[in-house]
Amino acid sequence: MCLEQCNEEIVLKVTQDQHQELADCYRGVEQRAFRMVMIETRQLSDALDIVQDAMESLMKSYINKPSEEWRPLFYRILQNKIKDWHRWGAVRAKLHFSKSEKESGEDWLESQVESPQPSPEKSLQADIKYG
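RE: above sequence
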């Protein structure tokens, strides 16, 4: 992970002096931040993404703040990113397919949308019921 991997548009707005200060700040928080996120997520790719997103958010929103404020701001942003990750985990869990839906081979999205035409099974059931 490094500042060069961050959004190019954001990096271009950073002056050379700010870039050096950001690099120093990042080196000072990188390992601790990564460990914090790994403890929370237990997923390497998610941890790397969260730390990088936090640094991008710091650069995008707080680059004009004094460099002494960057470290606490970064950790606040990081904590918020971790909370967001947990919130999305709850959403993913709610959308998680049950084992029977996976085994049936039925497309989950199609099963959630009511078709304007009855399926052959429903037509047959209606015929038997009313027929």
